[in-house]
UniProtKB/TrEMBL annotation:
<comment type="similarity">
    <text>Belongs to the prokaryotic Ku family.</text>
</comment>
<dbReference type="GO" id="GO:0006303">
    <property type="term" value="P:double-strand break repair via nonhomologous end joining"/>
</dbReference>
<dbReference type="GO" id="GO:0006310">
    <property type="term" value="P:DNA recombination"/>
</dbReference>
<protein>
    <recommendedName>
        <fullName>Non-homologous end joining protein Ku</fullName>
    </recommendedName>
</protein>
<keyword id="KW-0234">DNA repair</keyword>
<dbReference type="InterPro" id="IPR016194">
    <property type="entry name" value="SPOC-like_C_dom_sf"/>
</dbReference>
<comment type="function">
    <text>With LigD forms a non-homologous end joining (NHEJ) DNA repair enzyme, which repairs dsDNA breaks with reduced fidelity. Binds linear dsDNA with 5'- and 3'- overhangs but not closed circular dsDNA nor ssDNA. Recruits and stimulates the ligase activity of LigD.</text>
</comment>
<dbReference type="InterPro" id="IPR009187">
    <property type="entry name" value="Prok_Ku"/>
</dbReference>
<keyword id="KW-0233">DNA recombination</keyword>
<dbReference type="GO" id="GO:0003690">
    <property type="term" value="F:double-stranded DNA binding"/>
</dbReference>
<dbReference type="InterPro" id="IPR006164">
    <property type="entry name" value="DNA_bd_Ku70/Ku80"/>
</dbReference>
<keyword id="KW-0238">DNA-binding</keyword>
<keyword id="KW-0227">DNA damage</keyword>
<feature type="region of interest" description="Disordered">
    <location>
        <begin position="258"/>
        <end position="287"/>
    </location>
</feature>
<comment type="subunit">
    <text>Homodimer. Interacts with LigD.</text>
</comment>
<feature type="compositionally biased region" description="Low complexity">
    <location>
        <begin position="267"/>
        <end position="280"/>
    </location>
</feature>
<feature type="domain" description="Ku">
    <location>
        <begin position="55"/>
        <end position="185"/>
    </location>
</feature>
Length: 287
């Protein structure tokens, strides 16, 4: 069992079958450097106080939650009143619907969690649900409550366990039309599409998350180590030479650029700025 503490304990239910399970966050929050604000003259961390206008700092015991229903007017709620709200999803995640694994638009996915049975007695039923989802290529949908919120969740097999993905509700997703309405629906030209498709096929490979690294976070960690060794002295961050990427001003002929990408060749700047195979007296205007 992992050393981290579960963020939720309850039952995973399918009809009359209830399985005691635990949820663990799949992401490591400590994987990236975190920073605090520091008062430079003294080197001490900055702290924030909760204050009320005209009153000043207040004690945390005097603070309750409030919902602003009109500007400046609030409905006040105590923790006991909020806790009294009864939700079946507090301790039970019931799978109420199943959908195809590819039916959920990726825009709805939010955070990932590992789902594991709490003990060996729960493993038999756990494996049945896991293998049934894998065999049918379905994703189970349900709702659960944690951290003061009710989440829509998707359950799918992952290795020997299950993965839970919290989903955004429909009202939480922006409509795409205001952003995409100005983009033409005109289809791409067939010859350009063929070359672009061939380029995609050439670069297609099985997904391997380990092949991608967060270079910014690595550079930050390296900078922190250098500062620690320098014992507070100012240092100049090393600037690695990034590989040259084609900019918009260098791309004159779209077909030539696609074919060059497909061949894996690299032209120098002087060559890239010249249109491909154009006659001296007749130059086609770029769209």
């Amino acid at each position: 069992m992992p050393a981290s503490r579960p963020i939720w304990k309850g039952q995973l239910r399918l009809s009359l079958v209830a399985i005691p399970v635990e949820l663990f966050s799949a992401a490591r929050p400590s994987a990236k450097p975190s920073f605090r604000q520091i008062h430079e003259p003294t080197g001490k961390p900055i702290h924030y106080e909760k204050v009320v206008a005209g009153v000043g700092p207040v004690d945390k015991d005097e603070i309750i939650k409030g919902f602003e229903y009109e500007k400046g007017d609030y409905v006040l709620l105590t923790d006991d009143e909020i806790d009294a709200v009864k939700l079946e999803t507090r301790k039970t995640l019931e799978l109420t619907q199943f959908v195809g694994a590819c039916e959920i638009d990726p825009i709805f996915y939010d955070k990932s969690y590992f789902v594991v049975p709490t003990d060996e007695l729960a493993e038999d039923a756990f494996r049945v649900i896991r293998d049934a989802l894998r065999k049918t290529e379905k994703v189970g949908l349900g709702q659960l409550s944690m951290r003061g919120k009710e989440y829509l969740a998707a359950i799918k097999p992952s290795g020997t366990g299950l993965m839970l993905e919290t989903l955004h509700y429909e009202e939480e997703i922006r409509k795409a039309d205001p952003f995409f309405s100005q983009i033409s629906a005109k289809k791409a030209e067939d010859d350009l599409l063929d070359v672009a498709t061939a380029l995609i096929d050439k670069k297609t490979a099985p997904f391997d998350a380990g092949a991608f690294k967060d270079h910014y976070q690595s550079a930050l960690k390296e900078l922190i180590q250098r500062k620690m060794k320098a014992k507070g002295r100012k240092i100049t961050a090393a600037k690695d030479e990034a590989p040259e990427r084609p900019s918009g001003e260098n791309v004159v002929d779209l077909m030539a650029a696609l074919k060059q990408s497909l061949e894996g060749g690299t032209k120098n700047k002087s060559t890239a700025k010249k249109p491909a195979a154009s006659k001296p007296t007749t130059r086609k205007k770029a769209s």
